[in-house]
Amino acid sequence: MDLRQFSNFFNEYRQKFIRFAYMYVADSMAAEDIVSESFTYYWNNKDRLPADTNVPAYVLTAVKHRCIDYLRHEQVCQDTSNELYQLYSWELSTRIATLENFEPADIFTSEIQKLVDEALESLPERTRLVFVMSRYENKPYHEIAAVLGITTKGVEFHISKATKLLRVILKDYLPSFILFNFV
Q1: Do residues 9 and 54 share a domain?
Q2: In whole angstroms, what is the distance from residue 178 CA to residue 183 CA?
Q3: For residues 173 and 110, is the Cβ–Cβ distance under 8 A?
Q4: How far, in Å, CA of 141 to CA of 71, rounded?
Q5: What does the pLDDT look like over 154-177, one tens digit per residue?
Q6: Alpha-carbon distance 55 to 64, whole Å?
Q7: What angle do CA 55, 57, 61 make, to 5 degrees?
Q8: Which residues form the RNA polymerase sigma factor 70 region 4 type domain (predicted)?
Q9: CB-based burial of residue 79 (10 Å sphere; 0-12 exposed, 13-18 middle, 19+ buried)?
Q10: Which of 31, 55, 71, 153 has the fewest CB atoms within 10 Å of its CB?
Q11: What is the pLDDT of residues 87-134, one digit of tens each?
Q12: 144: Cβ–Cβ under 8 A, 6 or more apart, which residues?
């Protein structure tokens, strides 16, 4: 087949082959590309084909195989997209569930309580006892003073000593308390 014959063949079958490809790939640009590639494939390989080759059937077969390749590629893309969507959906659901179950107070309470307990253990016995009576038992200063046989000023001194130590130990948590209005 010479160039003139090929040009006539191309003009006669191009639109038919494009419609055929479009029926399967449902994308006009892709159908045109598939048909153009198939014609080019025939032209590049025409010298290797037997003389009695049915050229329209040969090119249509090339179109068919390129359509199959295109559709398989689309299927892989769609499957990958579905898997990514499912993964994203799972990740999003996990984030939502985790955030819904997250209670900042629980984290801060347990960590802070541990630090407070350790700090109180390091205090002298009387200072610890005064602090516990004041903060945990909610006893007023004059009652603590009467129970321990010390002055109200002595109670204030022990409370001040304990709170200074706690401020130092909890210094890393104070910005969080201020930022998140935990104060």
Answers
A1: yes
A2: 6
A3: no
A4: 83
A5: 999 999 999 888 888 877 765 555
A6: 14
A7: 115
A8: 115-164
A9: exposed
A10: 153
A11: 999 999 988 888 887 776 666 677 777 888 888 899 999 999 999 999
A12: 130, 133, 134, 155
Could you say which of 100, 128, 157 is where a domain stops? 100
> Which residue type sits at 69?
D
Query: Which of 57, 73, 100 marks a domain boundary?
Result: 100
Rounded to whole angstroms, how far apart are CA atoms 145 and 147? Answer: 6
- Which residue segment(s) compose the domain that 93 sits in? 3-100
Please indicate, yes or no, whether residues 14 and 88 belong to a single structural domain of this protein: yes
Cα four-point dihedral sign 125, 126, 131, 133: positive
Written as six digits, the tokens of 92 are: 């999003």
- Is the domain of 86 the same as that of 113? no
pTM over 0.85: no
- Considering the domain architecture, whether residues 37 and 88 belong to the same structural domain is answered as yes
CATH of the domain at 164: 1.10.10.10
Q: Which three-class secondary structure string do you get for 52-111?
A: CCCHHHHHHHHHHHHHHHHHHHHHHHHHHHHHHHHHHHHHHHHHHHHHHHCCHHHHHHHH
123 and 170 both lie in a single domain: yes
